[in-house]
Design goal:
There is one protein chain. It contains 16 helices and 21 strands. The chain is of the alpha/beta class. It has two domains: about 10-95, Alpha-Beta Plaits; about 115-140 and about 165-495, Aldolase class I (TIM Barrel, Alpha-Beta Barrel). An eight-stranded parallel beta barrel has the order 9-10-11-12-15-16-18-19, surrounded by six helices. It has a three-stranded mixed β-sheet with strand order 6-20-21, with helices on one face. The chain is globular and about 90 Å long.
Length: about 500
């Protein structure tokens, strides 16, 4: 006999407003709503509700709302309802708990404890409406010697670079984890914005090769969908060593999401869970990583930058130092609040460190070793707004990856059920009837709108600091101040407390 687990949410319907149009029934992929012909009214099975708000948004009479259920256990500060429910679930099934999206636990959000300094008199602010503000940047190795040919002309010895119109990229989200339409929205938006999107570890659908100039392809431990044409199609290649939501383990795409198209793209059997191993079985040292880096460079004639993505963990600075010496051009660091389509709950909620602390440590370590210009840094893992981007760059990043924010722009409601494949908004699903709910034209435009707005805000914040280029902001921690932070946190971040003079 399975233990009873109370519903997390309760669907409240105002029968006086409900006109029994049955829109909620048609729109809910979780079969929460149903029509009772005998009663002539709509019913709801709250136990199936994931709080995606699709029914609430589309109800023409505003007859629905979803609230936290008051069917709870006796109050206990140690044994919370969530903890008890998780014990019951594992006792019922004997399985590992899976979760989606980023860590929801009440950890400190350091972005919110960092303030941006402003200029006023001696270093006057800059008006971005009337003066040029440079948010364009390049990612790749910067250190190069000035060399001349026999005729005295400068040789171009600069390593391959990625040119971005703003310091933001769309982070890795694989086809399979998210839908075809979601991928198309990201690709089209990246092309229009002059930035890049990342395929994740699921290969690249043949329809999206045309966006190659704005695509970063990923090589993960499972090597899903990796072959010569795939590598050659992109602007850059990312080796995925780790992911912020699940450091130390590999990827997992439930078999229900491995449709025919996903199967062909990933080059794996249909309907079988795609589980990539925790380590790359050919990488057990920096020397092994270096061999893969140069193998990929050799395979693409040294024309593409090579990124290495790592999770933010306690020794991330030492790891980044080794990667910088491996020949990689760019290091992407993913913090513990980074999103995921599926991860063991215990890993997602208990492993890794925040991106703010990891980024500051890495930037400082590379500067101390005199190799900061050997690589560019991309920070990711719950970058939520333009101010987070500005703070990340001031802490040492060259640019930021955004994932969850991009999905929110596409309509995601953070219902955290991506791994079930029933996304009512057409994003984290492979079911055709659900995928079509996301219009790529609308999705791409919403992403363009979001990042256009962020870019304007970045320029305004830079102007307020008296800075007119992203390059002048990079690693400029004098422009940051902390509030509510301990001495240790301030030391790691490399910033002073608010009100403290130079």
């Amino acid at each position: 006999m399975e233990m009873y687990i109370p519903s997390e949410y309760e669907v409240i319907r105002d029968d006086k407003k409900c006109n029994v149009c049955r829109v909620c029934e048609r729109q809910c992929a979780n079969a929460v709503h149903s029509y009772d012909a005998k009663l002539g009214k709509m019913l709801a099975d709250s136990a199936k509700c994931v709080n995606c708000h699709r029914c609430v948004c589309l109800c023409p009479t505003h007859a629905l709302k979803i609230v936290k259920s008051d069917d709870i256990y006796k109050a206990d500060a140690n044994w919370t309802a969530q903890t008890i429910n998780e014990v019951y679930k594992q006792a019922n099934s004997g399985g590992v708990l899976l979760s989606s999206m980023g860590n929801p636990q009440p950890l400190p959000v350091f972005w919110d404890k960092i303030l941006v300094n402003a200029s006023q008199v001696t270093n006057p602010p800059i008006d971005p409406l009337r003066e040029p503000m440079e948010t364009q940047l390049y990612l790749g190795k910067r250190r190069t010697k000035a060399e001349r040919d026999v005729n005295g002309r400068l040789k171009d010895t600069l390593a391959p670079q990625l040119r971005l119109n703003m310091p933001i990229l769309f982070s890795a989200m694989s086809y399979g984890s998210i839908s075809y339409n979601a991928h198309e929205s990201l690709a089209r938006a990246a092309e229009e914005l002059g930035i890049y999107y990342n395929t994740g570890e699921g290969g690249l659908h043949k329809d999206f090769y045309k966006y190659g100039k704005n695509t970063i392809v990923q090589v993960a431990s499972g090597r899903f969908g990796v072959f010569k044409e795939y590598l050659e199609s992109a602007a850059a290649i990312e080796i995925k060593m780790g992911q912020g939501a699940k450091p130390g383990i590999g990827g997992h795409l439930p078999g229900a999401k491995i449709t025919e198209d996903v199967s062909l793209t990933r080059m794996i059997p249909r309907g079988v869970d795609a589980i990539s191993p925790a380590p790359h079985h050919d990488i057990y040292s920096i020397e092994d990583l270096r061999q893969l880096v140069y193998s990929l460079k050799e395979a693409t004639e040294y024309k593409k930058p090579i990124l290495v993505k790592i999770a933010a963990v306690h020794n991330v600075a030492a790891i980044a130092s080794g990667i910088a010496r491996s020949g990689a051009d760019i290091i992407a660091i993913d913090g513990c609040r980074g999103g995921t389509g599926a991860a063991p709950t215990r890993i997602r909620d208990n492993v890794g460190i925040p991106i703010e602390l990891a980024l500051a440590e890495v930037d400082q370590r590379l500067r101390e070793e005199g190799i900061r210009d050997e690589v560019s840094l991309i920070a990711g893992g719950s970058v939520r707004s333009s101010s987070d981007v500005v703070k990340a760059i001031a802490l040492g990043a060259d640019a930021c990856y955004i994932g969850t924010a991009a999905l929110l722009a596409l309509g995601c409601h953070l219902c955290r059920s991506c791994h079930q494949g029933n996304c009512n908004w057409g994003i984290a699903t492979q079911k055709p009837e659900l995928v079509k709910r996301l219009d790529p034209d609308v999705g791409a435009q919403r992403l363009v709108n979001l990042l256009t707005a962020w870019n304007h805000e970045i320029q305004e914040m830079m102007g307020g600091m008296g800075i007119n280029s992203i390059e002048a902001l990079r690693g400029n921690r004098l422009m940051l101040r902390g509030v509510g932070l301990t001495d240790t946190e301030l030391k790691i971040l490399g910033i002073k407390y608010a009100g403290e003079s130079l």
